[in-house]
Amino acid sequence: MRPTSLMRFNKALSKTSSTLSNQHTPQSLRQYSTFRARFPSALSSKVTAAGVLGIGAGSTFLYTYDRRWVHADSQHTPEEKTGIPGYAPEPTNIENYLPTNESCQQLQKALSHVKSVTELDVTLFQYQVCPFCCKTRAFLDKHKIPYKMVEVHPMGKAELKWSQYKKVPVVIINGVQLNDSSVIITSLSQFLDNLNGENKPVDENEVKWRQWVDDRFVRVIPPNIYRTFEEAKASFEYITDRGEFSYFQQKYGLYAGALAMWGVSKRLSKKYNITDERATLYDCAREWCDAIPKGQPFLGGNEPNLADLAVYGILSSIEGLRAFNDMCENTEIGTFYYRMKENVGESSSEKKSLKDVQSIVDAVKAQTTEKA
């Protein structure tokens, strides 16, 4: 962001906050106005740059969510095809959930000699609070697959400069790069089946609910965790506390990020005709709970299947936030969540920097160059 753009942003924000009466202005927004008034005007360019980065962090999350949730195709086929009221899958990404997809086949070929999960060399590039990354980690942790975890900084994504694919999650498994959480999970699941000598048919119900998670459930999360400015601030504070942010990025960018996400929430609610965010969230939670067979702990029966893990992963990304707590209080989803948490168990991850895994990245880059 250029300095002039930052000045215009601050000027507009000052005008907005000053024209709002104290009666209608959230306390946190008034606190921000006070903070800016006391913020020394003669700070060094380094501190100003930190502020720009903070705003940029909020804008980066705005862009990520905008691309994943706002611009996804929302044209559905009739709901009778799924049996889930108001929902039908988007046909454009069905291959991501099937073992016939190209990435899955490529991985099976590369791992044909592997006889145990301990022989896997898995590196996950992720954002800690990204729901799609949480979904991927849930699968890895459930199956006790050890993995190295590299946190991708949202500003610049330097840790992914080696990759043509710039979204998270990205994994490298024994030299093979896989992109997209559903592709990653499908591919690793097929590997485990092959490893155990199992030839399972495609579970259409499991695939249907995995699509439901990506096409519907995950889309009602942002309008709820950013429903009000106070909730947006709490959510963005949760994000910055768990991400790789400097002190100034956390403090100065907190309010800019919260304002941006508050705007995203309103935009999403309008796009998907959500008039009551919490009611829509509760409806989704009840749809899922109703899908679990009576007398069974999970959709998959006595053990969770890929759809169970997907729902758990998305929920884990907002655990502790007000939307999560409200959902648990008003539906039965909390019982499912904590049952899943106990079933999945502890993480088998090991935090690493890009420098630590540079040789792995270089090998993938070399393969990409050879193919080109």
Kindly describe this structure:
- The protein is built from 15 helices and five strands.
- It has 372 residues and is mostly helical.
- Strand 1 (122-126), helix 5 and strand 2 form a beta-alpha-beta unit.
- Helix 9 crosses helix 10, helix 11 (277-291) crosses helix 13 (322-330) and helix 12 (306-316) packs across helix 14 (333-344).
- The protein is globular.
- Residues 1-26, 28-55 and 59-91 have low confidence and may be disordered.
Radius of gyration: 22 Å
Strand elements, count = 5
Structural class: mainly alpha
* Helix content bin: 55-70%
Strand content: 5-15%
Overview features:
372 residues; mainly alpha; 5-stranded mixed sheet; 15 helices; 5 strands; 56% helix; globular; disordered N terminus
Secondary-structure map with pairings?
Blueprint: H1 3-19, H2 27-38, H3 45-70, H4 102-110, E1 122-126, H5 131-142, E2 147-151, E3 170-173, E4 176-179, H6 181-195, H7 204-215, H8 221-225, H9 229-242, H10 247-271, H11 277-291, H12 306-316, H13 322-330, H14 333-344, E5 349-352, H15 358-371
Parallel strand pairs: 1-2, 2-5
Antiparallel strand pairs: 1-3, 3-4
Helix pairs in contact: 3-10, 4-6, 5-6, 5-12, 7-12, 9-10, 11-13, 12-14
Quick structural overview:
It contains 15 helices and five strands. With 372 residues, the protein is mostly helical. The chain is globular, with a radius of gyration of 22 Å.
